Amino acid sequence: MLKEKAAWDTVVWFSALVMMATFLNKLGLVAWFSGVVETNIAQLGFSWMISVIILVVVYFYAHYFFASTTAHITAMFAAFFAAGIALGAPPLYLGLLLAGASSLMMSLTHYATGTSPIIFGSGYVSMEDWWVMGFIMSIVNLTIWGVVGGFWWKVLGYW
User: Helices (H) and strands (E) in the chain — how many of each?
Assistant: First the structure.
């Protein structure tokens, strides 16, 4: 087991990233950031639907600053959920959108989730191609989830 240096590196780095996300919460950075986002969206005077779209987009693309999906969700989900509720969003609808965004953001970068560096390390895709295609697919995925999913959740009575 001790010879598996790559596995130990992954465990050590992953635990450090989760710990950093925890301390971002404890130190109040995430609450401050979500409060700034919420205040600025509220000042624009949009309906809750437009406000939620902006909030989910900010939550989604903030993943560029995280090297772990778990760290990102741990640090930001609750704060952005609270901000969305304060902006008037139906809780179930907002929760579904944030949960969907949490899984879709895994393809954004070559470091977005635990498996991304392994796939990127295979050498089949350049970093530039990954980032360009990740951004394009993020727009496609968010549009499908927001429009088709939003319509379906409306039909089901979730908002």
Answer: 8, 0
- Residues 25, 75 contacting (CB under 8 angstroms): yes
Query: Which one, of 58, 49, 47, lies nearest residue 147 by Cα?
Result: 49
CA–CA dist 2, 53 (Å, integer): 47
Distance between CA atoms of residues 70 and 44, nearest Å: 31
DSSP assignment of 63-100: GGG-S-HHHHHHHHHHHHHHHHHHTT--HHHHHHHHHH
% the chain with pLDDT above 90: 25
pLDDT at 141: 92
Give just the sign of the alpha carbon dihedral 143, 62, 99, 108: positive
Structure tokens, 34: 């979500």
Condensed to tens digits (0 to 9), the pLDDT of residues 113-158 reads 877 877 887 888 898 999 999 999 999 999 998 889 888 988 988 7
